[in-house]
Design goal:
single chain, 167 residues, binds zinc ion, alpha+beta, 2 domains
Length: 167
């Protein structure tokens, strides 16, 4: 695949993940390292890749005495794709990521949970501020409870949705 096609596809994947919400917290980063070389970091949170296994891609070695240029090391760590490679390997890093992303037919699909999270957040914004005078029942929380709940805003949300709101 030529370089402009790689960039086009990378942009297409990135753009497909943007929904007016996710891009505020998650994205991708391209930069250089002191080996010397390149890195490509891609946030996988709220993408269909989040739970997909990645076997890793590795060849060559960054730390040899002859300063080999022909090396790559790609893995998934937590919810991030981490690709590192030699100073001429940026297209290869993008290629490795895209090959993985495209291993499903509908490679630009987004997880259905995303829209539910958006709805959850909309609902969270409608909750009133704490009124007290009692504090939230959650252990260790000293924020005033909501008038319709024994919990503060955040913990009321957590109680009902099973996760803390990302605000
Ligand atoms: Zn609380």
């Amino acid at each position: 695949m030529n370089a402009s096609k790689l960039l086009e596809d990378l942009q297409q994947w990135y753009h497909a993940q943007c929904d007016g919400y996710r891009e505020h917290w998650f994205g991708m980063e391209i930069g250089t390292t002191d080996n010397p070389g390149w890195f490509l970091k891609v946030d996988l949170t709220d993408t269909i890749l989040e739970d997909r296994p990645f076997g890793g891609v590795e060849y060559g070695c960054a730390d040899t005495d002859d300063f080999s240029l022909d090396w790559i090391s790609c893995k998934v760590d937590g919810a991030q794709f981490l690709g590192y490679g030699g100073p001429r390997k940026l297209p290869d890093l993008i290629q490795v990521f895209l090959a993985w992303a495209k291993s499903e037919d509908d490679w630009l699909a987004v997880p259905p949970e995303m829209s539910q999270r958006e709805l959850d957040l909309e609902w969270y914004r409608t909750l009133s501020e704490g009124v007290g005078p009692e504090t939230c029942r959650k252990a260790g929380c000293s924020i005033l409870r909501l008038d319709q709940s024994v919990f503060c805003r955040q913990h009321h949300f957590e109680q009902l949705k099973g996760y803390l709101p990302e605000v």
